[in-house]
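Comment thread on ticket #2218

A.B. wrote:
> Attaching the input chain for the structure job we discussed in standup.
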Amino acid sequence: MGARRKRITAEQRKEARKTQYFAKLRNVPTSPRKMRLVADMIRGLEVFKALGVLKFSNKEASARVEKLLRSAINNWEQKNERKAESNELYVTSISVDSATMLKRMRPAPQGRGYRIRKRSNHVTLFVDTLE
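C.D. wrote:
> Ran it. Output below, let me know if you need it in another format.
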């Protein structure tokens, strides 16, 4: 009973994804907190305006998000078989989730060791036309 329900909901999710236009960036070696600052800058903006904001941002994570946004625009263009025009596409949602954490030890005074957590994240970006 449970396996059948899981399969049905998975198929429904798969069908819903066919009408959505998105791009994913996985295992980015930046802390999620720093990446969320960049994601908040472009959430809800028109895509070409968002590209301008990211291009002139001095944050290191903005270059990665800019490349991801270009990929999402390209995915939209391939599925619709036409070029994106200005004031047509918008960043509908962007989410940043934490990924695996590398745990390291740094030598400290008196024989101790301090823990270093090297964080990483996953970014998912959705674009769509404004209805």
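A.B. wrote:
> Thanks. Noting for the ticket: The two ends are 38 Å apart (CA to CA).
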